[in-house]
What we know:
Blueprint: E1 7-16, E2 26-31, E3 38-39, E4 42-44, H1 51-63, E5 68-73, E6 78-81, E7 96-106, E8 122-128, H2 130-136, H3 142-154
Parallel strand pairs: 1-7
Antiparallel strand pairs: 1-4, 2-3, 2-8, 5-7, 6-7
Amino acid sequence: MEKRKGYRPNVAAIVLSPDYPEKCEFMIARRKGMRKGWQFPQGGIDPEESLETALRRELKEEIGTDQVEIIAEYPEWISYDFPKNSRNPRRYPYKGQRQKYFLVRLKPEAVIDLEAFEIPEFEEYKFVDMEELFRRITFFKRKVYRQVIDHFVKEGLL
């Protein structure tokens, strides 16, 4: 993993509904207390943790299940900066995140439970088509999401 100063290593999951590939719907979740904070599940990578282990742990913590099939991995690390007005102390001392994205399909038996972790990060989720995804997603992640989604479209996966 290439390291950039001030960027937290992170994994992110583009979670598709169990109806994929017949129907292409993306799971997005709204951060607790943030009216417009819609995003994909994501989280930090612990020391000595593999990318897949981090991905499954974060999914379990954030959406209550790791029952997914990994379809593909984005080939590069992507960085983004936190908004300048962001004051969340959890982000300190990072100026942004360096992420590895995975395209995953939720297994039919999976049960999403946003209250599964002791401190829930999300308060609502929904499955949306691509058009609604880009209308709802938080502004500072749109460019990165577009880059990753476009790659998976070009690969014939979406």
